[in-house]
Amino acid sequence: MNFSDDNAACPQQKGVLRWLSANGSRPPARIVDADDRMSANEAYELVSRGTGLLWRGDFHNARQLLSAVSRRIRRTRTHGLSVSEAFHAHRREQSRRARTLALVLVRLDPGHVLPLRRAPDVRLACHEVYGQANVPYVVPLRELFGVIGAHEWRKKGISIPALGARIHAHYGVFAPTRGEYVDLIAETPLPSVELAFDIGTGTGVLAAVLTRRGVARVVATDSSARAIRCAEENVRNLGLAGRIDLVQADLFPSGRAQLVVCNPPWLPAQPHSLLDHAVYDPDSRMLRDFLAGLPEHLRPGGEAWLILSDLAERLGLRSRTELLAAISGAGLRVVGRSDVRPSHPRASDPTDPLHTARSAEVTSLWRLASIGDRATRT
């Protein structure tokens, strides 16, 4: 991640400090100093007016202050709203909360050194996300916590039973913590396949599962350079570098394959940050473009495996009729479908504002083929 062109002027500093955010946060117009003497109420009043707080006190006190400010942000009432209205209200609150909490800031010195009392060593975690740092910079404290957490997840990895191994997700790359979609790929009957495409590969987990199942060669694409680097690392660690080719592309690589797999963002809504793009797909753009491009990239007799949750339907964001129309409109037909119920914690959390929809959610693997191709197995 390179330094942005945005500069934030900080009080009691000579000149300006660089602003840096891997998540796309924008610098505040005004910044004041803050330390252990500032109360949570005072901090909340300042950030509520859009003033950034450059923290100069104890690191652990900064964490407590951020939590206290978060508790003071008013939660949106969703009682009496339709499920669709509740979703949009929830998203607005998430966006407002993220903008407000991003105004608590810290300065890092060259080499990603955090000069606060009781501060952890964040040099490696920050280097993984931001790259080299030869000058001081300012970053939102909440983002820094995310960077630290992502570093720990990256070291620990996520166990993937279908691989008998761990996948290590980088910051900003969708982590396969919801294993049901991986299991669908691992358990759906697979014909003899010489070449498969994995569209939007992320960590490379689906490409790895396909390879371990016997696919001779997989070409995996992603539009994110960060995701490609992450997938390269995982593929190398799994000993699959000779069988999986990674290509940075918006969707498809060149050519045709016998099997094309895609797990697109599931919710047709506007992302509020760079990290949201793995979950939110405005107007189902990626989904529609994937379906539209499939006929040109499937070999005769080939199949596409589309992994999709019906949460969008349960939230009133996209109907099943619209999905089926997009499939048929692209010259495709459904030749089979496998379903699974999610087991992630939010599906059983009654305090979640979207609990009604999440508790009934179903994740499906849709098997698709060209309408003119009747050779596909059923």
From TrEMBL:
InterPro entries of this UniProt entry? DNA_methylase_N6_adenine_CS (IPR002052), N5-glutamine_MTase (IPR050320), SAM-dependent_MTases_sf (IPR029063), Small_mtfrase_dom (IPR007848)
Q: Give start and end of each Methyltransferase small domain.
A: 193-309
Its keywords, alphabetically, are: Methyltransferase, Transferase
Q: Which GO terms describe its molecular function?
A: nucleic acid binding; protein-glutamine N-methyltransferase activity
Which GO terms fall under biological process for this protein? methylation
Superkingdom of source: Bacteria
User: Per its record, how is this protein called by name?
Assistant: Methylase of polypeptide subunit release factors
Species the sequence originates in? Saccharopolyspora spinosa
